[in-house]
Design a protein that fits this description.
Layout lengths: L6 E6 L9 E5 L2 E7 L5 E5 L13 E3 L2 E3 L6 E2 L5 E3 L17 E4 L2 E5 L22 E10 L3 H9 L18 H4 L3 E5 L2 E12 L12 E11 L3 E10 L2 H4 L13 E13 L2 E11 L5 H30 L13 H23 L11
Antiparallel strand pairs: 1-10, 2-3, 3-4, 5-6, 6-7, 7-8, 9-10, 11-17, 12-13, 13-14, 14-15, 15-16, 16-17
Helix pairs in contact: 1-5
Length: about 350
């Protein structure tokens, strides 16, 4: 099951060059995206209503998209505006159109009722395209259900184990730390001190500094948007603050942000978009590249364990999981998603239509 009335990341802005349709599958639906002549993004059902040929094999013409099987042309609204060989275009000749917004170097699609698409619900990525910050990007495909990737990001205690030699830095600090979990609109805020932790390998630390107290705080928002800020301080800062959040005026030794998005392709496949951002005043461009290289190694480690987990679940009759204290955030987030999906269930049932209702006569 998927939450429909929500914005999902369909890709990075640089994935969509002008004049080239791009095929995507999201929430089990085939979608084609293209950049119009005015630079905006359009998104349509990737299935011509005539003979069901993929529109992603079509041709961009100004703001429209032409099917290259029999030449039907579609506007960004989804309406067919031209059928070669006939002057009348029947009103039912149309395909589904998806609200699309380009923001913070991501292209977002609203997968539910277009009348409910509210751009204010789009989470703001951290430092994307900020001239004062270095930015690197990537993406990774999982053969796994999206909920398992959400679970992984909601419990960072796994860094000490899955990422022992990468993000975990050969330390038990992540596993031993206890986060605070607070509700926010359409998500959770999760914060913790990671005490006496080795400094990040991809950054040049001040002379004599090998370990730090790191404040890690992130928002996790539906449908699976991870927005993490970290700040590192000399060891002892956490104790001096009584394990409360650091003074916002205290200058950190290092600071980083990463914005990540989990987008279901279907029930068993997921695409994961991620960034790494470092302030230019504290880091070099080479530091930024090294950060992304470390992320890629670490996320490959996640991929191995989560895909293996999915295979075990698939062959386990009536799989059940034991919940432990570290699962507090992921349990809350799953409940939130369940509640939101339950709220839209009657609407989804009412909007169910036959698959070929839009076919042209």
């Amino acid at each position: 099951m998927f939450l429909r009335n929500c914005w999902y990341v369909a890709g990075w802005s640089h994935h969509f060059s002008s004049g080239r349709p791009v095929a995507r599958a999201m929430l089990g639906e085939p979608i084609v995206l293209y950049r119009k002549d005015d630079g905006g993004i359009a998104a349509l059902e990737d299935r011509c209503c005539h003979r069901l040929a993929p529109l992603s094999k079509g041709r961009v013409e100004g703001g429209d998209l032409r099917c290259m099987y029999h030449g039907l042309k579609f506007a960004p609204s989804g309406a067919c505006v031209e059928i070669p060989g006939q002057t009348i275009v029947p009103p039912r000749a149309r395909v589904r159109a998806y609200p699309a917004v380009e923001q913070d170097c991501w292209v977002w699609l609203w997968m539910g009722d277009p009348a409910l698409a509210d751009v204010a619900l789009i989470p703001r990525a951290l430092k994307h395209d900020d001239p004062d910050w270095w930015m690197q990007t990537g993406e990774l495909v999982y053969e796994a259900n999206y909920q398992l990737i959400n679970d992984n990001l909601l419990d960072l205690a796994h860094l000490s184990y899955v990422h022992e030699n990468t993000l975990g830095r050969n330390s038990m600090s992540w596993a031993e730390s206890r986060p605070t979990v607070s509700p926010i609109p359409r998500g959770l805020r999760i914060a913790r001190w990671v005490v006496n932790n080795p400094g990040p390998r991809y950054l040049t630390m001040p002379d004599g500094v090998s370990h730090v107290d790191m404040w890690a705080s992130y928002d996790y928002m539906v449908p699976g948007i991870f927005l993490l800020r970290t700040r590192s301080y000399p060891v002892g800062m956490a104790a001096a603050r009584g394990m409360r959040a650091p003074d916002p005026d205290a200058e950190p030794l290092t600071t980083t942000t990463t914005s990540q998005a989990v987008t279901p392709i279907d029930e068993r496949h997921t695409i994961y978009y991620y960034s790494g951002c470092l302030p230019r005043r504290l880091a070099s461009e080479e530091d930024s590249r090294q950060q992304l290289a470390l992320f890629e190694r670490a996320f490959a480690e996640d991929n191995v364990i989560i895909e293996a987990q999915q295979r075990v679940i698939a062959r386990t009759p009536q799989p059940r999981m034991l919940w432990i204290r570290a699962d507090q955030a992921l349990n809350q987030f799953r409940r939130l998603l369940d509640e939101l999906m339950a709220d839209e269930a009657p609407e989804a049932a009412a909007n169910t239509v036959p698959a070929l209702q839009g076919a042209a006569g």
